[in-house]
Amino acid sequence: MAPVGYGQSIAASPAKAPASTAPVFVLHAQKIIDKATLRAVRWSGPESGPPAVPGKTIALVAEDLRNGGILGVAQGAREAVSVMGWTLKVFDASGSTAGRANAFAQALAAKPDGLILCGSDALENNAALAPFASQGVPIVGWHAGAKPGPIAGTPVAMNVSTDPLEVARVTAMAAVAQSNGHAGVVILTDSKYGIAMAKANAMADVIRACKECTLLEVRDLAISDSGEKMPAATKDLLARYGKRWTHTLAINDIYFDYAIATLTKAGVPNKGLSLLSAGDGSAAAFLRIKAKTYQTGTVAEPLKQHGWQVIDELNRLLAHRSVSGFVAPVHLVNAANIAFDGGDKFQYDPANGYRDIYRRIWKP
User: Fold this and answer.
1) What single DSSP character describes residue 180?
2) pLDDT for 313-350, tens place per residue?
3) 242: pLDDT strictly greater than 50
4) What is the chain's mean pLDDT, rounded?
5) Which residue in 35, 77, 319, 350 has the most C-beta neighbors within 10 A?
6) Which strands form 139-142's sheet, in the order they lie side by side?
7) Cα-atom radius of gyration of the chain, to the nearest Å?
8) CA 186 and chain centroid, separation
9) Is the bond leading into 280 cis (omega within 30 degrees of zero)?
C-alpha cells in the first residue's frame, strides 16, 4: 500500500464484477433494504438464564470514549449494572498505544470479577488480556473481533456485535438501491482493526458485483486520525473523482464528522454525495440524516442493548453457564424510519422490550 500523505489507498481500481460473481440487482438490493429498515423488530434474544450473581465489580476497557459506539455501549452497561447491583469501572484508552497500556494496567489493578474489552481488537491486545485470564477473570468483548461469538486464540468468550459482514452488505446494498445500480463508490476503513477490514472487504465485494457500479477507491485512514486527516482526504477525493464520486461507504460514522465542512465549502449539494455508514449510529449521524445533510443512512448498532448484553454474557460466565451467543439483527436508519426506535433521542434503541426481558432473567 503506497502512502498518500493522510491515509493509504488499499484499492483504487474501477474494476467491474468478475465473471464468477453473481450480479447484484437493484430490486434484490431494495428488498434487503426494505427488511433492514423495518421498525420495532421483535426481540429474538435470550428469554431465560441465571439470576444475577451478587456483588460483582466489572472493568470496562474502552478503546476511545470519543467514539459514539463505544460510549453508547458503556452507557448501556452502566444501566445494566445498576439493575444487577454491580459496580462498573471504566478505563479509557483514548485511542493510543500508551493510553491502552495504561487502561489495561489500571483495570488489572482494580481486581475486577469480569472484563469488557470495548472497541479494541482482541488478537492485537492478547498479551494484555492474558493476566486477566490467568486469574480466572471472564472476558467479553464488543467489536473486539471480525465476527460475533468467541474469538479463537484469545480468552474472549463472547464478542458482542451485529454480524459485521451483514452490516457491510446492507450498507453497500443501500448505495446500489439509491443509485439504481450506478454508484461511484469510495470506501473508508481502518486497517488496524480486523472488524473494519472485514466490513470494507464485504462492501467492496457488493459494489464489484454490481454490474454498472464503480469501486473508485478503498482508502485506509485511521479512525484516531480522522479529525486531523479527513478534511484533506475529502478534498483530494473530490479532486480525483469529481461527480464520478456519488457514494461514500465508511466503517464508522466518525469519518463523516470531519468531511461535512469540506463538502460544504466545495459547493457539493446535499444530494450530490450520499454518505452511508456501516456503524455505529452516532448522534451526529442521526442529526445529519434527519437534516438531510449528505448522510442518508447508518447501519446503527443497538448500542445500549449491546451494553446490557455484555453484562448478561458476563453474568452467565460468572454463574458457570454458557454465553447466550445472541446476535442482534441488522438495522439501517434512514430518513423514513429515523423518528422511531430511539431516533427521537438520536440513537438506535430498539423498541423490543430488551430491558424488561433482561430484568426478568436476572431477577426471576
Assistant:
1) T
2) 999 999 999 999 999 999 999 999 999 999 999 999 99
3) yes
4) 92
5) 77
6) 87-92, 57-62, 114-118, 139-142, 156-160
7) 20
8) 18
9) yes
